Amino acid sequence: MSHELLNYLTRELQDFLLDSSILPYLEPILCQEVLGDTRSEEKINELHLMGLLSQVESNTTLWRFHHLIREFLLERALNIRSPEYIVSLRRRAAVHLEKNGNIDQALEQLAACADWPKAADLILAYAEPYFLENGCHNILYSWIKTLPIDYLNSHHQLLYYKGICLRDNNPQKAREILSQAAALAREKGDVKGEIRSLMAILAVHIFSSDSARSEAVAERIPMIASRLKDSWARGFALVAALGKAVSEDDLKRGLYLSRLAAKTPLEQEWQLYYLLLSGVVHYRLGNLDTARELAEKALALPLVQKSDRWLGVAYVLLSGIYCAKGEIRPAVEISRQLIQLGHKYNIPHQIAYGHRRLAQVYLLQGKLIEALYESV
């Protein structure tokens, strides 16, 4: 599109073209809400007849500019419209897009106008219920990376989620970021934020079999949680103490804490850790049926069923229980799935556990060559 062709259009159509160029697509309701234009549908149809818009696949209500036309229009709009006006359009667009479930595009609008506080609010609104519970760590991580590093480093909740995203495939980096989140939360007086970050660090240590570090972190949590007098803090403190008991192999205390935690309301993630840690206690005590029951309860949690990441965590324990009980078929199936998940998400310790369990199965069957192969 040239300047001459743009000038050929009525002023009303020119304004519509320029303002709508900031949108990811054109749709009558979106244009009406963002641009305040009650004749949006009529103008979209007119522009389509002029060959300036094309349908989005087979959808008859969504339209797009050719990317070269949009680039031209957007550059012109940014040159002649005031920054405040463009920001107001993008913010209204973000509201509409979020309301209609287009979270990625809503975030793109906020990032384009550098509205980092609103972008952060959007990420935090969907981090837990949408991304972490559905295993979409990579998407969440890509969103967090859109934020300027200075802004990110001043926001302990965002640092917490960044650390969570890295916890499985880069535990060392996750530990650094979660430590930063805990320190910043403490500085800002957010006790719950500090505890959540420390619990996440504890999980990194426990599932990396780093008993010394897990013990050190676990000792800090009850003292911090004592500042809060509610059941939320008590539940966190119990799970932290249970993790400490597991890391120290203090099975008698672990059993006692497991019974207490069973009676305490817990957030879903920490309910998962309570079940898994309790399963480890019973597994080490030789109570394999109880260990299996706890592991299978963990496996049935919606958090686990919706997320391959959590599924792998549960499979680590369950594969060991099946091996110890001599249940060959489920042990092999779970171990192979564990290896697949480890490769899919680049989680080395899950891959190692899967091969180790298969080696144990082959040893039970007397297949020494196969066991040796899995052990390499």
List keywords for this structure.
376 residues, mainly alpha, two-stranded antiparallel sheet
What's the helix and strand layout?
Blueprint lengths: L2 H6 L2 H10 L7 H8 L4 H10 L3 E4 L2 E7 L1 H14 L2 H17 L3 H10 L3 H17 L4 H8 L4 H4 L3 H11 L4 H17 L3 H17 L3 H15 L5 H17 L3 H12 L5 H18 L2 H13 L1 H4 L2 H18 L2 H17 L3 H17 L3 H8 L1
Helix pairs in contact: 3-6, 6-7, 7-8, 8-9, 8-11, 9-11, 11-12, 11-13, 12-13, 13-14, 13-15, 14-15, 15-16, 15-17, 16-17, 17-18, 18-20, 20-21, 20-22, 21-22, 22-23
Describe this structure in words.
This protein has helices spanning about 5-10, 10-20, 30-35, 40-50, 65-80, 85-100, 105-110, 115-130, 135-145, 150, 155-165, 170-185, 190-205, 210-225, 230-245, 250-260, 270-285, 290-300, 300-305, 310-325, 330-345, 350-365, 370-375, and strands at about 55, 60-65. It is about 75% helix and about 5% strand. The protein has 23 helices and two strands. The radius of gyration is 27 Å and the shape is elongated. The protein has about 375 residues and is an all-alpha fold.
